[in-house]
Amino acid sequence: MSAPTISTEGLRELLEQGAPVTVLDVRPGAEYAEWSIPGSVHADAYEALRRRDPNALADFRPTNGGRVVTVCAAGKTSMLAAERLRARGLDAASLEGGMRAWSLAWNSAEVPCPGSTAQIVQLRRTGKGCLSYFIGSQGDAVVIDASLDPRVYRRVADEHGWRIRTVLETHVHADHLSRARALAVDTGARLCLPTTDRVSFEFAPLNDGDTVRVGSAGLRVFQTPGHTPESACFLLDERALFTGDTLFLAAVGRPDLEATTDESRHRAHVLHASLQRLVALPPETVVLPAHTSAPVAFDGRPISAMLGEVQERTSLLRETEETFVSQILTRLPPTPPNHHRIVALNEAGTLPADPTQLEAGANRCAVA
Ligand SMILES: [Fe+2]
Fold this sequence. Notes:
binds fe (ii) ion; alpha/beta; seven-stranded mixed β-sheet
């Protein structure tokens, strides 16, 4: 017997529409704890399903309507789970490719930005927590930190009647494969990166104080080294700040990726200075980071906060330079999986045939 499957895009659409569906995750508990589909339920049935235990999932009852989508790491054990549930008469399907494929699922949220003539849309890779942005004005659009297939950006641009003119990166990413170059090639847009000699492809370099125009709006470049040497932030119309991995909503960027211990310490000092520049902006500035650490719900609510709130939540921002440096270096989380390989590909501007293999797992760019 074989159960039907549902694609990542199929499940994504059901969740975005708010359709009644129970997402049942059957991976081991530790994997579920690391990252999961928002609103999913967990059943500790992995081993029982693998040994074909007829009692596996016997106690499971759908919590949200009759339809069930089963999930595992790669789509095999979830198939056993869906078969088991169908044998009980439930309407169950298995998520094709499992969480590895789900890594590419996305949703979106409009970001209100009073005082700017531009429209901001936040695109979220729900599993990995990568956040990218559209800024649209007068039919033109800029994309920041593209982390999804170029087709997704084209679709959103079409829906809004925008032409993608410029593709920006805040820095060379270590946690996901950048789609910026692919998107620029695909759309004929200009590709802009903060000045760096790290990458081996052509781009228009951005320097501190430069302004990138989009329609009637402008993005001012702040060079904010620390997380990486070339990291930059972009300030839209003095109202919204795209912070990359320099500043999150309750954490700051880690300074240690692709760096020795001495370099990490140096970068932590530099990061402190960069952050001091940012916190000098008005407290009502809307902060829009490049990552979030939890799976992103299909709720249409932007992941953002005002700078004043971010300062309140992030104790590191209130420390002296010496304390900041010593605390950040003792609180570093484990490094993201495959980051050496991801950085090498991002520096080369190339994408492997199946990006999900390298990108699986949660985001680890922040220090709280
Ligand atoms: Fe990063």
